[in-house]
Amino acid sequence: MSARRLLQLLLVVQALAALGIGLAAVQIFGANRWQGLAAGLGSVLLVRLAINANNFLMSARFASPTPAEFQLRPGARLRMFLEEFGASMLQSSWTMPRACAGTCIHPGGAGLPVLLLHGYGCNSGYWSQLVPRLDAARISHASVDLEPLMGDIDGYAPLVERAVDALRAATGAQQVIVVAHSMGGLVARAWMRACGTGKVARVITLGTPHHGTCLAAFGLGLNAAQMRRAARALAHEPPECAWLRALDQGEDPAARALVTSIYSHHDNIIAPQTSSQLPGARNLAFGGVGHVALGRNPRVLDAVMREIAALEQASVRQTQAAR
What is the total count of domains within the chain? Predict the structure, then answer.
């Protein structure tokens, strides 16, 4: 089952639950129709709110120390929570249930084309806020739906290779930029390990568990198992699972130097949050941003666009030097 179908099914279940609660409020407690509607919708929202809050609580159990410059006051924490809850609601209830992978080519467009890779349990609809920015800058782009939903991360590499070749053929570019969220960053690294780095100019990851996350223990599927990290590792064994250790050992310094890892010290899914720090890569830290909100937060998207623009400027300089 695709992520889109699964999310659509979950929406139907939530709608039926809201209807059942609303009818019970009317039939049993004598509420009017509007009160029943409010009770049904309110109950579903409260459950979704509780799930979101639980993610923050679980990640806090395994959190890495937050640097002083990223410490948040109560008001900022509340804004972060509401932003993450809103992002989760919009992505899972509106953008992703309606999304399909696609390609947009801007003839004579600026810079290198961009390939978008989503994270665990998501699809190409995750990029609903970055895509308009790419279009405004006339940057060609394509997205991939990583399926099967709970498959092997290494098994996604052929999908990425085909998408990269198609994007290069459509634009005439020799290389592409990969922007990847969460698990998508590991997919990009697995693809580079399998197919080489010659076709990629940069990999920009958002909230990727490069060293695993303790919360992956609660996930389903082989891909979740490949992102696991032990909360308490043995003295003679690193906390990352065997797959992550193999991925780390299969990279050379040149491959690492191609990566920009953008992450948040308040990520509510990646814990410890410093798991997103990748030695040898360019690491950009943020504070006050949740995991899903990384794909919508203006500060984070500004940083992504700056990284893309810097590559375009470097490409122009190289072309001028060659001439």
Answer: 1
pLDDT in tens, 232-286: 765 567 888 999 999 999 999 999 999 999 999 999 999 999 999 999 999 999 9
Residue 186 near residue 226, CB atoms below 8 Å = yes
CATH code of the domain covering residue 254: 3.40.50.1820
Task: Give dist(CA 210, CA 185) in Å, integer.
Answer: 8
In whole angstroms, give the CA distance from residue 55 to residue 88.
Answer: 12
Q: Is 280 left (phi over 0), alpha (psi -120 to 50) or beta?
A: left
Query: Which tokens sit at 45?
Result: 């929202």
Return d(Cα 276, Cα 151) in angstroms, integer: 22
Residue-range definition of the domain harbouring residue 319: 1-323
Burial of 295: CB neighbours in 10 Å, binned 0-12, 13-18, 19+: buried
Put residue 138 in one of left, alpha, beta given phi > 0 → left and psi -120 to 50 → alpha.
left
How far is residue 195 from each of residues 103, 143, 175, 176, 206, measured CA to CA in Å?
Answer: 22, 19, 13, 14, 22
DSSP class of 213: B
Extract the runs of DSSP E, i.e. beta strands, from 168-275: 176-181, 200-206, 259-264
Q: What's the pTM? A: 0.93
Q: Which residues of 215-224 are buried (b: 16+ CB within 10 A; e: fewer)?
A: bbbebebebb
- The pLDDT tens digits for 41-70 are 999 999 999 999 999 999 999 999 999 999
